[in-house]
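Task 17 of the worksheet. Students: predict the tertiary structure of the chain below and write it out as structure tokens. Keep your answer in the requested format; marks are given for formatting as well as content.
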Amino acid sequence: MAIPAAAGVLVVLLAWLAGPGLLGISNDELGAPVQAEVTKPAPCDRPDAVENVKFTVAGKSLEGTLNGCGHGQGERVDVHVPEVLPDQGTVPVQVADTSAGASDARRPLGLALLVFACFSGGMFVYLWLRLPVKPAKPAKVS
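Model answer:
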């Protein structure tokens, strides 16, 4: 019983030390938030849909590609523009977070689910090892 418990505690400790990136949570800002206008929308019926957007940074109008779909022509979208802009061509942008601080509760919840999974796995192993071994029935000789 001590080995599964220790393994579960070790997994949870390593997950906590690994940081939020392990649970798919990232608070990294991708650049400056800017409002963009969709110039060429993309339908959501194909994978890797890309929409074209235009936005203004430091008084300069730029074109960008947004990895997304389902927006309408002329719709305004908040995007993150990279800190370093290319000299020419389109700028790859990403949709900005829709609500600030949304990731605050995800890490503790993910860690709690990981603890529950470790506990469940440990209990499964414990109960499996406690099953009585049933002797095989001898074959009947006629």
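Marker's comment: Helices lie at 2-18, 106-130. The first helix runs from residue 2 to 18.
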